[in-house]
Amino acid sequence: MVQKSDNELAYAVRNLVTLMQRRLRKQISDLNQLSVAEQGAMAALLIQKEMSPTEIRSQLSISSQFMAQVLNKLSDLGYIQRQPSAADGRKIVVSLTKTGKQFIQHSRQERESWLAEKIATLYSAQEKKQIEDVVELLMKLIEL
C-alpha cells in the first residue's frame, strides 16, 4: 500500500530528475542551443539509427507541423539527413549525420565533465559512495 511518505519521496525524486535535466541542458556551450524536442529527435535517432518523421513525431508526441520545424532546423544545422527508404523509396527516413553524432558526443562530454567536477569538489569520499549506492537503487526504477 502506498503511503504518504512514498508519494513525498516520488515527488522529490521526480523533481530532482527534472531539475538535474534542466541544469545539465545549460552545460551545452554550443551557440545553436537545441530545444527539448530537437534533442529528443536526435536521441531517438542515435538509438534507432534511422526513422521516419512519423515515427519520431509519434515517439516525441508532437504535431506534424512542429516535427517539420524540428527536422528543418536539425537539417539546416547539418545534424540530420533525409533520404528515401531502402525498403520503400516513396517514404523518407531520417538519420544522424557524422556532424550530428559528434554534436551529441561533445554535448554529453561537456555535461559529464561539468557533473564530474561538481561531484569531485562538493562531496567527500563517503558521500560519493552514498550517491553511488542511491544511483544503484534508483536504476531499479527503469529496469521495470
Structural account:
The protein has 144 residues and is mainly alpha-helical. It has 2 domains: 1-30 and 98-144; 34-96, Orthogonal Bundle (Arc Repressor Mutant, subunit A), CATH 1.10.10.10. The protein contains 6 helices and 3 strands, in the order H-H-E-H-H-E-E-H-H. The chain has helices at 4-25, 36-48, 53-60, 64-76, 98-122, 125-142, and strands at residues 50-51, 80-84, 92-96. A hairpin with a 7-residue loop joins strand 2 and strand 3 (92-96). Helix 3 (53-60) packs across helix 4. It is globular. The two termini are 18 Å apart.
pLDDT averaged residue by residue: 88
Q: Largest sheet, if any? A: 3 strands, antiparallel
- Rg to the nearest angstrom? 19 Å
What portion of residues belong to β-strands? 5-15%
Distance between the termini: 18 Å
Order of helices and strands: HHEHHEEHH
| Residue share in helix | 55-70%
Number of domains: 2
Shape: globular
Low-confidence stretches: none
Number of helical regions: 6
Q: Strand sequence of the main sheet, in spatial order? A: 1-3-2
Structural class: mainly alpha
Quaternary structure type: single chain
Structural features:
144 residues, mainly alpha, Arc Repressor Mutant, subunit A, 2 domains, three-stranded antiparallel β-sheet, 6 helices, 69% helix
